Amino acid sequence: xxKHELRKKYKSLRLKLSTEVIEELSLExxxxxxxxxxxxxxxxxxxxxxxxQKEVDTEFILHILQGKDKNVVIPRTDIExxxxxxxxxxxxxxxxKNRWNIPEPVDxxxxxxxxIDVVFVPLLAFDKTGHRIGYGxxxxxxxxxxxxxxxxxxxxxxxxxxxxxxxxxxxxxxxDYCVTPKxxxxx
Length: 187
What we know:
Layout: H1 3-15, H2 19-33, E1 43-46, H3 59-67, E2 71-78, E3 83-88, E4 95-97, E5 103-105, E6 118-121, E7 125-126, E8 132-133, H4 139-145, E9 152-156, E10 177-179, E11 184-186
Parallel strand pairs: 1-2, 1-6, 6-9, 9-10
Antiparallel strand pairs: 2-3, 4-5, 7-8, 10-11
């Protein structure tokens, strides 16, 4: 299948999930993340979930990061530049949903991509070689291309890997890991 078909398939599958199932699967994903050797790093980029899109609930991961006293960086979408601007999450950070219902920081302390050590990447689907399918706007591929070369890229998925995608592009940046409720994939 191509990316368009897979995007449609996984959006449809996610929309059928109940709030309870999303919470249970998201907790399993967070628990599986603890198996990775990533916790010595300092700056962790974490997307805030779009509830309306039934994304993996990253609140459990946020609690892990805060419990380990890590610096959590959250993105804001710059629609005009087709880019992500990253801000340090603090006790005073104000969060507001944008036009796509993405919870984002209103403002704050900006963190440059070269400071970030680990990125938790949203996705709809991924394959066995670490390629991912997002919503198709390219925000994360552009962001990841501006990060340091040894950044750790971790996808989060309710579903297991597809064999391969038909239409992978040179600008697509593969993941290092993808974590599902059942397992951790390493690429």
